[in-house]
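Researcher: We're teaching a course module on how sequence relates to structure. For the next exercise, students receive a sequence and then see the predicted structure as tokens, so they can try to spot secondary structure elements on their own. Here is the exercise chain.
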Amino acid sequence: MNNQIVKSSAAFPAQVGNWLATLLMVLLPLQAAAEYQRLEAIVAVVDDDVVLASELMTRLETVRRSIAENNLQPPPGDVLINQIMERLIIENIQLQEAEKRGVTVDDESLARAVGSFASNNNMTMEEFQQTLAEDGTSYRQFREDIRAELIISRLQRAMINRRIAISEQDVQALLNSPFYQQMFSDEYRVGHIMRSLEDDATEADREAAVVEAAGFAEELRNGADFAQMAIAKSSASTALEGGDLGWRRAGELPTLFSDAVLDMQVEDVVGPIVTGSTIHIIKLLEQRGAGTERLAQTNVSHILIRPSEIVTSEQAREQAQEIYQRIQDGEDFAELAKAFSEDPASALNGGVLGWSTPDQFVPQFAEVMSQSDVGEVSEPFESEFGWHILLVEDRREQDMSDEARRNMAMDLLFRRRFEEERQEWLKEIRDEAFVELRL
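Model: And here is the predicted structure for the students to work with:
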């Protein structure tokens, strides 16, 4: 293993990069790409499984399309393939770990997740499948890709939650910190580039890497495109998304650079920040207000009708419509919720969910709740959980109590620690895995 900064948690041999770069050029014509995807050549052995050339080519095409749709300049072929290979390897390791630990996703949960894709795009399932087909995407493969994402998400929660410990001292420190004040007023969209050092890097290697990273930071200050540099240079899991961490409140930012972000102006670049075997560069992409310390709450009740293996989504919709009509005809909402709602947590209480905020619910539910007047019963609508009818009982703006503030602080600390531990866990399982790149 060479002693230099690398773009992933394992070095990618030069001959592999050269071969795949050549392959990339050969595969530029779509017909050639289609021909190659029929071959089941093994490009990597990962513990007890393999990564196939067809998987690599499929993911390559997906990433290329995403880069093009976002009007970004793709990095050199070997760099892009390096990134994609590393991501496929990490995913493969996690899926094997999930299988060993019995982490699965049942067909009903998968159907709800896939259904949410269609509803979020205002399509029926038939329209959604047709759109996938027109894009050249297999519906069956799409379902299995979503299943894999859900399995990995469940595995990560199971493995990482146990690594997180939050003390009373941690909570009090956050409550007394500027982060807690800032999270009520502003949200930040931060770009992140991470460079990883080899485990056996010397001090000279480290110094050279820091100098190189400082050069990248200076290029960014002089106007270089951040997303483009992240795709080409970052080894973080967000590299192929242009390093974008998305919108986060101050308390949700990684501890490593949360202090710096509070003092930054939009477009400011900070770095290199050196910690352990990694080097970081951050840029404040955008900043926006997040509201006041008064919390808008809605007292809401609902009735849920779930599709199942024997009840189609259309049949569930028809049942929900019948219940809605009975409510319109004067029957009691709470009694119908007790009789028909398939949400066990609320059905026994007449469908009551209590005082809630929109961020506690899936987007479809939150949107209908926000648009409904007090006393109004919504028409049936669909979410990933099934068909809902909701009743807005009342609304209020509530000052945050000490208990609520403490709970929010706990939640913010957990989410922050989760991301930090997730990155560390991914590095650990990658280092422990047997990986053989094979052409």
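Model: If you want an answer key for the exercise: The chain has three domains: 14-162, 179-292+420-432, 295-398. Residues 402-432 form the longest helix (31 residues).
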